[in-house]
Sequence to fold (153 residues):
Amino acid sequence: MSDDASEDDVRRDLPSASIVKAKYRADGAPEFDAADFKEMEARARGPDVLTPQEMAIVLEAKEEGNAKFKAGRVEEACQKYNCALQTYANRPGGTPDQRREKSKLYANRAECLLRLEQWLAAEQAASKAIQLDADNVKAHYRPCARTRGTWRR
Fold:
């Protein structure tokens, strides 16, 4: 960094998600709360790991999707599962728990797509769920249910 560059120029060059705002005590020492440390720890584990805040967004969207699905609002449920999956973006999820959660979201999405009779999209969603977690029984069942004629609304 050159001496001419201002602090604002440096901040603009850094990805905004990687900056944790420090709070300062009266003596000028930085102070972080527990959420800041969890976010920094997640970022240190790699770019594929979701931060606690991102996981909270995922879980909230999943719960909303589950509630809409139970209420019979399948299209809205599918949208909520899609929102949760968008939080992952292109990241697989850096921990086994995060990969399992992403697999569940894809399996739930597959069920919604089956009910909407979008067969190919349902099969693709189930395949993604299986790639993330081969032990996800629902993900294995959903594409087979339509093929074998056992799927029912």
